[in-house]
Structure formats: C-alpha cells, structure tokens
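Dear support,

I submitted the protein below through the web form. The confirmation email said the job was done, but the results page showed an empty box. After a refresh the structure appeared. I'm attaching both so you can tell me whether what I see now is the final result or a partial one.
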Amino acid sequence: MITSIAAAVVIFAVLVLVHEAGHFVMAKRVGVRVIRFSIGYPPRVWGFRRGETDYSIGATPLGGYVRMLGDEIAEEPSPSTLEGYIREIELDLLEDARHTGWLATSGKAGDDALAAIASALAPAADGSILPERAVAILGHEPNAEEALVLREVARAGTVKRARELLCEGRSSTLIERFNLRAFPSQPLSRRIAIVLAGPLANILFAPIVLSLVFMLGVPVTLPVIGQILPGKPAATAGLRSGDKIVSVDGHAIDTWEDLSRAIRESGGKSLQLAVRRPAGSDNLVKLTIQPKQEVEEAAVFGDKSPVWIIGVLPRGDELIRHETPLSAVERGLVATWNISHDIVVGIFKIIDGSTPARKALGGPIMIAQMAGKEAHQGFADVAMFTVMLSLELGIINLLPVPLLDGGHLAFFVIEAVRGKPLKLRHREIAMEVGLFLLFLLMAFVILNDISRIIG
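What the results page shows now:
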C-alpha cells in the first residue's frame, strides 16, 4: 500500500510539473507575470522565491497550478487584485535589495526595510528617484511601477498607508503596467498559447519518455508457446508447449506481439507457421493452422468485438530489446499516436454510451493501485504507465469543460467569433457549472473505485 501511494504521488507530481511548466514557460515567454508556480495545493509546505515568482510545494500533492497576474475572469482588476500586485512589487524591491547585500547591512526586514529603501531613494520633496543610489541599493534603476511605489511610500511615510492610497487612487501608471503583465489583458493569441501549452506539454512529454525507454531497453515477450487451450485451432494443428514460432506465412516473428498481430490481421485465412521445437524434438517443423473467430471483451473499453484467435498463451520468456536513437524516436512517436488514438476513441465510446462509464473510469484509488503494481515491475513499466497518464491528462484537459483548459479555449473561440468576450456573469455561471460537474465526476470515480474494491 505504501509503495502504491508513493508511486502514485511521484507520478502525479511529475505529470503536474510537466503540465504546469508548459503554462509557465509560455507565460514567461510572452511577458505575463507568474506570481506562483506550485506543485500541490495549499497550505504551502515549502518553497522559495526566485525573481518575480514564488516556487512552492503544497500539502495536497495530487495537483498543482500556475497563478498568473490578474483575476481569471474579471474585466477590471479588483481592489484586492491591485493590492496583491502592489505587494508583489514590494517583494521585488526587497528581493533586489537582498541580492545586493543592502538588506543584510541595513538590519531591517519587511515593511521597515521597504520604508528605508524609499527614504533613501526618494528623499526629495517631489519624490524623484536618485539613480546612483538605486543602483547601489537595488542593483538597477527602478522601473515605472517600482518607482511609483517607492515615491508613494516616501510621501505617505508608511508602507501600509502608501498601499491604501495607491489602491484608492488607481494610478493610470499602475493600471497600465498591470495590464501590460496581466493574463486577462493579453491579446487573444497569447492567451490561447498560454492555455494550450499545458496540455501540449503533457502530450509532447510522451514521445520523449518513450524514446528514452526504447533506447534504455524494454522487456519483450518471445513467441514461445506456454499453454494450449483445448479444442482450439492450435491444439488441432499440433502445436506443443515450448514451441517457438519462427515465422508466419514467411514473415519473421520476433515477439509475441508480432505473432498476435499476424493472427488478428489474418482475416480467418489459413496460416503457414514455421515452428522451432525444443531440443530433442524435430528442430524445425511447418504447420498449417486455421484461426477461429471469437467475441472478446476489450480490456480497455469493456466493449465486445470479434477477434481471430488460435488458442495459445505465452510461456513468459522475455528479453530486453534496445533501440538505436533514430529507431527509438520513431517507435516513440508511433506509440504516442496509437495510445492517443485509443484514448480519444475511448472517450467517444463513453460519451455515446457504447462503453459503460463504470468499467472505463477510475479514480485516485485505482490509479494508486496500478502505479504500485507497475512500480514492482520495473522502470519500463512505470514509464509506460506515466506516459499513458500524461496523454490522458493532456487530451482530457482539451475537452470543452469549464475549469479545464479546454473550457478556457472554448471561451476564447467564442470571443474570437463575437469579437468580444462573453459577459462576466455568463463566464461566472459557466465556471460554477464546470466546478459542479468536476465535483460529480470526482465523487463518481472515487465511489467506483470503492465498489471495485468491495466487489
């Protein structure tokens, strides 16, 4: 149980890190101010501030977020948002003073240190900043919003009062600089790029990990017969336990997957098998086998479909296969496409009702159980499981559901068509509905997990 929980937490943390890093990197690239990058949700357990961003780890590990400047759906910055922005500017000034060593020399901290900086940099009656002192204390001349805060602190006498005056006055300089760095006031193309970067990061993460796994080596099952099911085509044709399938219709068979594919794609026509018998038997024999069609339930989606079988199970012989870098990248891309295709098909099957949601959906308990199982199998299995979850996270986040990235993208599409955003109240209602739906989904998958355990 401990292994399962630990494996699930680590895998989720990696996937959240990748997802949020996509948002973070794109936001930084287009000039949006990122206030916090968090793995896990509050309360904050540990973290540090670097530049203008606070990097933290929250006590609730299964999630994370990138908090950017600006209210998510508000049309104008609220007083609390503006106050938060001013506090961020204050932290920037203190961080700069710490880097130059002035903060340690002054022996002051917090508001007292900020008041001392303002007094030293804006001593004149008009509040003008002394550039030579600014370089000595901050390491650079303050930008427009920093200079505004320093002047107001010097005039008001206290940081608290200066903050109140700035919020009440809503200085045009402050609002202009806020809009320049805030997410909601960015051009539509930039907002789309920031939101889309998260799911794309999860999707692009998959072929990278798969390529690495294929280069390091993955275990493959050899085409050696273990169990022969009675009354099936393999028993009728004379296959024996221990036989190794060398070729099917002249095509070389290297793995059990190759054999399975050849049978599935046979269409029911007779197959010519070249079989190597164990030592002490006729070493190489040729057999003709007629596949039989049966209806099987798919392990992933729970729906039933006809398949061609011969009635054999593998003995379990394995070897580690390493790919060249070029081949590994090719296989990684192909595998990513195939897994993504299966996920999309699975989602549509759930939506149209052909696959029961109870069979297809699992929550944190099931994921923890699966993560623990894969952790005991080895690195390759854990990596493959992580890739599958990463693709699911990326694709599901693109669904047009409010609160998901796809919901935001849907709002942006509507904004592009209308030429203006939806009304604030309409967006608020959509967010409330999205939150309710996600709550219902989480409750359903958790209860579904519990029912599986009880069953």
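Response: this is the final, complete result; the empty box was a page-load delay. The chain has three domains: 1-34+188-217+325-455, 79-181, 219-321.
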